Known about the structure:
366 residues; alpha+beta; L-amino peptidase D-ALA esterase/amidase; six-stranded mixed sheet; five-stranded mixed sheet; 7 helices; 18 strands
Amino acid sequence: MPNVRPRPAAVSRLALPAALFFAACAGTVTTQTQTPAAPGPDPRGITAVDGLKVGSITLTERPTGCTVILVDGEGAVGGVSQRGGAPGTRETDLLDPSNMVDKVNAVVLAGGSAFGLDAASGTVRWLDEHNIGWDVRIAKVPIVPSAILFDLPVGGNPKIRPTADCGYKAAAAATNGKVEEGTVGAGAGATVGKSGGGNRSMKAGLGSYAIRLPNGLVVGAIVAVNAVGDIIDPDTGKIVAGVRNPDGSFADARVLLRSGGPSQTPRAGENTTIGLVATNAKLTKADVHRMALMADDGFARAIFPAHTMGDGDTVFSLATGTWTGQANITQIGALAADVMAKAIVRAATEATGIPNIPAARDLPKR
């Protein structure tokens, strides 16, 4: 059994009697008043973007889970970039700039492969109960795009996977406090460094990062990293987590690829990095789409290789419009790529290892 420390917003339904589970989830819902942060990195992560809340549920038995990014009010303008070769998604077509719906109420990231898409149904149910959604006069239909990653081989029983109940509880637990990172939520079963074959991978997880400019513009990212490739800190060029040699050192996927040495061909659908970038700027649907496209560069900066045929890499984007300054999409998109790369690195550095799959923090310092 994985030794994952229980957290208030990471409750396992399967590990608790129903009454205790509902009570535990109810206890995680908090209301926090945030004072304006100083310019620079914001320690809260993506919840530094006004109007966003994040909640995660972790099923610690395997582990796996889901993460919900909830939008206050009537929703936010949304977009998506999908460049991986093996995606598992829901409600992405309506994010096309040429299509009508221009508001998103929540985004769901989940483990569990295609089974995990069911988590979005639970978030839809929670929003429906709170009368939140796209107004079609006779009802308000919640708009909840979602994406999944493949973590079924990790930690044991593949029958343990996120369900609609997980999506419901994650929405109910969402707060605007500091984002919980590491081996939680959608990143609970995430691993990286699989281009070298079996038993050489490492643990990754969920990461988040945000930056606030002096003029009040905020851009943030949240990402669950389950990549074929290695995680590389773009600021230093050094590997953070990836394919390991027998002595525990990094094999370096870049060296393996360039030398023609041993490399595992990724199997379709068995990996995937999924995330979201957001800003408090007021953007059009076309601008938000461009923001997602530019944020995808963060994948290429921090993951090698990225966007393979075995990865379903997907980036969602949101603009809450609470900032009244003049929006510059080139600047915002560039910042989105930057915060996404940093969030990917945090997904590796904040992760906790599980049996036979160490995390970066478990490796000896060299």
